[in-house]
M48 family metallopeptidase
Amino acid sequence: MRHTIASLVIVASLAACATTTSSTGRTQYVGAVSEQQLNQLGAQAFTEAKQKGPLSTDARQNAYVRCVVDALVRQLPAGQRAFAWESAVFAEKEPNAYALPGGKVGINTGLFDVARNQDQLAAVVAHEIGHVVERHHDERITRQMGASGAVQLLGALAGDYGALATQGGSILAQTGFLLPGSRAQETEADVVGQRMMAQAGFDPRAAVALWQNMISAGGNRPPQWLSTHPDPQSRIAELQARADQLVPTWEQARAAGRRPSCG
C-alpha cells in the first residue's frame, strides 16, 4: 500500500488543477488528483477505518443506516449513484459521521442519541454526502498541495473528523483533511444536504431539530464534527429558513411515493 500511495502522490503533484463552480454557485479550485484516484483513496481510508473498528454487529443498526443512505443516494446525479455505496456503523460513543469519495459512509453509534429518528439521521448523512457531491475533499487536497507540496498528501484523504485518526502512520492520520471543512464548505453541505433529504422524502425540518439536540447534548459547544460554523444559533436560523422553503419539495416527494421507512 505504501508504494501505491507514493505513486499516487507523484501523479498528484503533476496533475493539472482547474477552476470549477459548485451547484450553489461557489468557485472551487480542484483537480490535484483525478476522480479515479480520489475514489481509490477514499476506499483505502474507509477500509482502514473498518479494520481498526470497532464495528457494530447490531443488524438493526446497520440496516437502519443502510436504508437512510440508500434513500438519499437515489437522489444523486447518475454519476454519483453509480458508485458502490457502502455504509459502516462504528461502536463509538462520540456522535460522529462522515462520507468519503467513492461512496463510503461511516456512522458512530453515539450519533443515535442525538439523531433520534430517521429524518434527523438523514440530515446528518445528507450533509456528509453533500461534502462528497460538491467535491470538498478534492478542494482540500488541491489546497493542501498548494500550501505544503505533494509530501503532505501521504495518506491522501480522510473524512471531517479527527476521531477517525488513531495511529500516526495510518492513511487517516497522515493527512491534513482530518480537520473540519471550511465555513463555506460546511454551509454548502448544509444547503445541498437539506435539499437532498427533502427530495428523498425526509422532512427537511428535522435538520433544525438535530441541531437543537446537539446543542442540548453538548451545551453551547457543538461536537467537533459540526464545529466549523460562525454560530450554532445562526446555523439553526439558516436551516429553519431553508426548511420552510423545502417543505413543498418534501411534500412533492412523498406524493411521488418517496416515503422512506427506515425505522
Q: What stands out?
A: Residues 1-7, 9-15, 147-169, 171-179 have pLDDT under 50 and may be disordered. Strands lie at 18-21, 27-30, 86-90, 97-100, 104-108. The two ends are 39 Å apart (CA to CA).
